[in-house]
Amino acid sequence: MKQQRKHHLWRWLAWICGILVVLWLAAGLYFFKVGMVPGHKSFISSNQQTLRKSDPLYKQKKWFKNVHKQKWTMMSASKHYRLVADYIPASKPTAKSVLICHGFMNNKETMGAYAAMFHQLGYNVLLPDARAHGQSQGKYIGYGWPERYDERKWINRLIKKNGQKSQIVMFGVSMGGATTMMTSGIKLPKQVKAFIEDCGYTSLAAELDHEAGTLYHLPAFVAKPAELSLSIVNRIANGFFTTEASSVASLHHNHRPMLFIHGAKDNFVPTQMVYTNYRATRGPKELWIVPKAAHAKSFQTAPQQYQQHVQQFLAKYVK
């Protein structure tokens, strides 16, 4: 009788453990779909580019909408996806070019105001759609980690277009900022002269941890196992553990100049993250915290100062 009760107890424990494992895997699959599969996301703003004259960046966006763009295509560094970019040559022939990276579930069109700014500063401008965004192919979002090798291919494409004397700047906002920092940590051509990142996260894992609390209000004892499950699912489907995708770890290998920009009122990628990123890089660096600016709104909040900071920083490293 006692042995029978013990057998029932072990069976119940096995059932409970099995249910917990199923729930754990289900959580990973759910958050993988939310975070890694492209599609409508309720927690981010629409990227529709409606022009309004009240917009502080109206002139820049209007210029971008009307300017002639060359369409470039390229195969991704892995997975054999067709990637698409817009290229806008400078008004006068120049070896100076900027590679612009957009944010999560945005596309090259959302970066039009930044393209206008750099074009006004005399740069050729290249705006790719990241994997699984815009016109580019791709099944899953990589948050800058696999994309960093795509960016290197775009850089080599710019060198092929504009010659060995090319001087290339890489710039990105939000996920694009993280992509910029992650790219800075790999071996790059000598023609890459500087980086500018705006409101990029320290790591994908840290950003997921932050969003688990702010969007889903999950306590740590629930969030951590769910994030681990997501990481395993992502490794199987997307090729990397979420803990691998680190801006900080990449910046430890960067010795080129970098300008860090972050809004003082950023609640999506917490402002405190920029200080960690700033400390991590090994090259010349500058930091600008934009008063009153929310996430990815620094240019819109202070357009003139933004362009001045960018121009003054680049004048030191791109001649």
Write up what this structure looks like.
The chain is of the alpha/beta class. It has helices at 2-36, 58-66, 112-120, 147-162, 175-184, 204-214, 220-238, 247-251, 272-280, 298-301, 303-315; strands spanning 70-75, 82-88, 96-101, 124-128, 167-173, 192-198, 258-263, 285-290. Strands 1-2-4-3-5-6-7-8 form an eight-stranded mixed beta sheet, sandwiched between helices. Helix 9 links the parallel strand 7 (258-263) and strand 8. The chain is elongated, with a radius of gyration of 22 Å.
Mean pLDDT figure: 92
Rg, Cα atoms, Å: 22 Å
Distance between the termini: 87 Å
What's the count of strands?
8
Widest β-sheet, arrangement of strands: 1-2-4-3-5-6-7-8
Largest sheet: 8 strands, mixed
Strand content: 15-25%
Shape field: elongated
Uncertain regions: pLDDT < 50 for 5+ in a row?
Answer: none
Characterize the quaternary organization of these chains: single chain
Instruction: Give the SSE string.
Output: HHEEEHEHEHEHHHEHEHH
| Global structural class | alpha/beta
Helicity level: 40-55%
Structure annotation, total helices: 11
Blueprint of the fold:
Layout: H1 2-36, H2 58-66, E1 70-75, E2 82-88, E3 96-101, H3 112-120, E4 124-128, H4 147-162, E5 167-173, H5 175-184, E6 192-198, H6 204-214, H7 220-238, H8 247-251, E7 258-263, H9 272-280, E8 285-290, H10 298-301, H11 303-315
Parallel strand pairs: 3-4, 3-5, 5-6, 6-7, 7-8
Antiparallel strand pairs: 1-2, 2-4
Give a short synopsis of this structure.
By secondary structure, this protein is α/β, with parallel strands linked by helices.
